[in-house]
């Protein structure tokens, strides 16, 4: 995927997490552990920077195989979050976007702005037809992002994700290329 680094605007850039970014990524995760743990199961598996080595290698392989990406979001040259495409279904021209953001950078439009720029690219350059965002039903901040951008809510999957000690209902939103920028 030759789209990286991806300049969203003058303040926001998206780039593949490299081994050199490992410590900065770990700091982001560790500083936001309590905040992010409410929604992400994998945080407890990342207890030191070295725990990210195999994950970063897997992310590089996914990019190489055109099978999605996991990238950092830099805001004014500071790593503040992540955004990624989970598996790209090239046959059906579909993917899903996942994201996380440092709690101290919420409310600045960083994720919404990044997703809008990615949608422009995914529909125009990758010729995808459908992009999905899934969020926990109770994660109102996360759900407001696809709602604000104009994604269509397809429904709620009941108890679709086990999260530590309980099930979460998952909301699914979609955007079609025919609906984007109309």
From TrEMBL:
InterPro entries: Acyl_CoA_acyltransferase, GNAT_dom, Ribosomal_N-acetyltransferase. It is an enzyme of class 2 (transferase). This is Ribosomal-protein-serine acetyltransferase. The lineage of its organism: Bacteria, Bacillati, Bacillota, Bacilli, Bacillales. Signal peptide: none annotated. Keywords: Acyltransferase, Transferase. It comes from the Bacteria. GO terms for molecular function: protein N-terminal-serine acetyltransferase activity; protein-N-terminal-alanine acetyltransferase activity. Residues 12-174 form the N-acetyltransferase domain. The keyword Acyltransferase applies. Its EC number is 2.3.1.-. GO terms for cellular component: cytoplasm. The keyword Acyltransferase applies.
């Amino acid at each position: 995927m030759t789209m990286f680094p991806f300049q969203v605007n003058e303040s926001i850039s998206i780039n593949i997490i490299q081994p050199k970014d490992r410590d900065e990524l770990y700091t982001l995760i560790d500083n936001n552990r309590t905040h992010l743990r409410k929604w992400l199961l994998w945080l407890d598996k990342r207890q030191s920077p070295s725990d990210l080595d195999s994950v970063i290698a897997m992310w590089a392989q996914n990019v190489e195989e055109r099978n999605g990406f996991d990238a950092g979001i830099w805001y004014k040259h500071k790593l503040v979050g992540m955004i990624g495409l989970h598996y790209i279904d090239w046959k059906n021209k579909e993917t899903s976007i996942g994201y996380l953001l440092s709690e101290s950078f919420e409310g600045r439009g960083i994720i919404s702005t990044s997703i809008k720029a990615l949608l422009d690219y995914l529909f125009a350059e990758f010729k995808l037809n459908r992009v999905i965002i899934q969020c926990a039903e109770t994660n109102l901040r996360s759900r407001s992002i696809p709602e604000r951008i104009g994604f269509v809510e397809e429904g709620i999957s009941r108890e679709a994700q086990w999260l530590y000690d309980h099930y979460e209902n998952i909301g699914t939103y979609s955007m079609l290329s025919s609906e984007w920028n109309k």
